[in-house]
Hints:
It is a single chain. This protein is of the alpha/beta class. The protein is 40% helix and 19% strand. The chain has six helices and five strands, in the order βααβαβαβαβα. It has a five-stranded parallel β-sheet, with helices on both faces. Strand 3, helix 4 and strand 4 form a beta-alpha-beta unit. Helix 2 packs parallel to helix 6 and helix 3 packs parallel to helix 4. The longest helix is centred in the first third of the chain and has 14 residues. The site of 1,3,4-trihydroxy-5-OXO-cyclohexanecarboxylic acid (DQA) has 10 residues, from loops.
Amino acid sequence: MKNILIINGPNLNLIGTREVEIYGKISINEIEEICINEGKNLSINIDFRQTNNEGEIINWIHEVNSKFDGLIINPAGYTHTSIAILDSLKTVDKPKIEIHLSNIHAREDYRKKSITSEGVEGTISGFGIHSYTLALKAISNLLK
Ligand code: DQA
């Protein structure tokens, strides 16, 4: 079994009710359940977390080298602002994938630039909940 950390950034605790026309009606708890089930199919244990705090995201990223085989991160709003999260991603020497529920390239100009994506192997954006399951398949392939 491989161990993967999935980090969800600010306001993702509210999906399911927040801007449903963009993010859909699935809650963060349902996403966690879907990820855990998909993980079982891929022999991956999932540690699924959400926080609204930038520092907590950074502390969690610092756990990856010693405790996990890879990282999937939806930095949410911090995607477009956080050099500190980018710096912490650059310290991780395990596979990392950035994901977004929505297609950030098809939205407002300020969302088109991802600062954090410079620190990951690849990004998946725009497939709703499937962004998470596609990332699990991708990270499973990277770990083979
Ligand atoms: C998001 C896209 C971000 O631009 C936004 O700030 C979010 C969610 C997504 O999953 O589509 O909070 O990361």
